[in-house]
Amino acid sequence: MTEERAYTTQLQAGLGMMNETLDLLRLVQRDDTPSKLADRIVSSGLFGRTTARRARNIVAEMFAPRFLIQGDQPARILSSLIGSASSSDDLRQIFFLQTARAQAVFGDFVKYVYWPRYSAGALAINRAEAETFIRRALDTGRMQKRWSETTISRVSGYILGCCSDYGLLDKAGRDSKKILRFSIRPKVALYLAYDLHFLGITDKNIIHHTDWKLFGLETDEVLLQIKRLSNDGHFLVQSSADLIQISWKYKSMEEAVRAIS
User: What is the domain extent for residue 170?
Assistant: First the structure.
């Protein structure tokens, strides 16, 4: 595991929460802070009988770390995709990407447990495998303080539940879940490529970026995805054994998202 971000228990705030995320993206406004957005949720009654404390927790622990970052760009960008021609499957994969980025314990589980099991032809992943993954992380100091066995069990369940919400695992089953076919969608590959570009990452490093591993892609497969998108006119690609250069068509993430939608 190469990324050394601390693991947290924030997944308990809401796992994938597709419907709630869609509602929040419709409600969020430019330059919203978590506090401002939470106040608007409470006053609007967006989540019905949900308590004010619970609504604030959803924003602070679930929505803000995933979407109110980079000057709230993900929230602004994705708000424009709501109600567009983009399918719910495209949105679900983008939400998956943002969640895995925000929650290292989830992202690393997908990279280092889910995909190796998928590639090995495994039919299911069980809670014991998730617990083993967490215990190894504890031994390498990935948590700020050592988790109890109860917390290990709970977070293992959250990880599997989040995988189910985003279509990596079947929803049926509590302690063992069937592995589902999962592959990056073309519009999501376009979103990811341009997002990395506008984060200031070089063309070469985009191809090698670990975010692609969330979708089970190795470098040669990423390059193939990029070339396919190039064939669709989204950019021009020149590559050789040790060089890649991309001429980017869209001048902002907003332009890229308009192409996606």
Answer: 1-182
